[in-house]
Amino acid sequence: MPRPILATIHSAALAHNLERARRAAVDARVWAVVKANAYGHGIERVFESFRAADGFALLDLAEAERVRALGWRGPVLLLEGVFEPRDLELCSRLELWHTVHCDAQIDMLAAHKTQVPQRVFLKMNSGMNRLGFPPERFRAAWTRLDALPQVDEISLMTHFSDADGERGVAHQLEVFERFTRDLPGERSVANSAATLRHAAITRADWVRPGILLYGSAPDFPDHDAAHWQLEPAMTLATRLISVQTLAAGDTVGYGSRFTAEGPLTIGVAAVGYADGYPRHCGTGTPVLVNGVRTRMIGRVSMDMITVDLTPVPDARFGAEVTLWGRASNGTVLPIDEVAQAADTIGYELMCAVAPRVPVVTD
Question: Is 343 left (phi over 0), alpha (psi -120 to 50) or beta?
Fold first, then answer.
């Protein structure tokens, strides 16, 4: 028999979350962001659930080829644009839209020989300070693009740094609107957090939901997934492979980080950091055993963790262990809670599930 760990991708949850984004975005068109292999879920596994999107947004050409190979004929956007001149040839062949965020990309377009002009999204650095033209140089970049026969329609975009926090989006939105006020073209500004939290002021032609599509709250812990009516799109589950009885003073795992204060029954579950379960999780990290919430104890090993069976005294060899997602009895353990225990975010856990973990779609 194979090792009992399994990741399950929930197709209905993905479709539900996409519809949730559409409701929040009112009249905007919706990009389904599938970068990083659909946040670790697999582009091929999420594609049918996201067919109702207006377009797919991703990072690299290989991902774009996969989306086209699945039969998608609608818009596909490269969120970081092209990386070298020959990328534009594939953009022409696959009819890709692409972001332009620097002069080098305009230079590539100016030198590109094509019979079919390309759709581009000109990006402004409104305060994130990663990619994009400074506001003062944005109009010049637009003018240069507009003069190129290689360029068809120019859309305008920016990205928010604090849509999930107290600072919010107003300061960046004011800059973006001031420097694009009389420029033509469709707009795209809202990520997941802005789509859910700031829809009233970030209305535009396109929204770019990412993490919310996969059932994680973009502003956790201020709000959890249930608050935003999001459903977990991935369940990582395994089973108990041993049950141990401890006496007071017994320790557990490498480094003896946990010491039993009295008699204690623990279970050993077949999952570890080699499966993508975060090593930084420690005693107290939530876990479900037979759908009952309990806690991990001790250190995460390469292939195993240990869990407190006090709330589930009847648990035996083979009992279901849910690391995140939905247990068989319907109980949900949000991935964001596990990520918080590891001092990280749900995005990383989704993307880090190891290749050795089998994946199925329901």
Answer: left
Nearest Cα neighbor of 98 from 116, 125, 80 is 80
CA angle 289, 319, 360 (to 5 degrees): 90
Active site residue 35: yes
Backbone angles phi, psi at 151, to 5 degrees: -115, 130
Q: Is 273 tagged catalytic? A: no
Nearest to 122 by CA among 114, 109, 54, 31: 109
CA distance 281 to 192: 26
The tokens describing 278, both together, are 């975060």
Q: What are the start-end ranges of the H helices in the chain?
A: 11-24, 35-39, 43-46, 61-69, 87-94, 103-111, 135-146, 170-180, 192-197, 335-341, 346-352
Instruction: Confirm if 129 and 158 have CB atoms less than 8 A apart.
Output: no
> Phi-psi bin for 59: left (phi > 0), alpha (psi -120 to 50), beta?
alpha
Looking at the DSSP bridge assignments, the partners of residue 244 are 266
Return the half-sphere exposure (C-beta side, CA atoms, 13 A cut-off) of residue 237.
Answer: 22
Among 214, 254, 273, 277, the active-site one is 254
Residue from 35, 39, 214, 347 carrying the catalytic annotation: 35
Tell me: cis bond preceding 221? Omega within 30 of 0 counts: yes
Tokens found for residue 219: 């502003």
What is the DSSP track for 156-175?
A: EE---SSTTSSS-SHHHHHH
Residue 115's pLDDT band (cuts 50, 70, 90): confident
Q: Does the pLDDT of residue 2 top 90, yes or no? A: no
- Count the Cβ atoms, other than its own, within 10 Å of residue 203: 15
User: For 324-351, what is each residue's pLDDT tens digit?
Assistant: 999 999 999 999 999 999 999 999 999 9
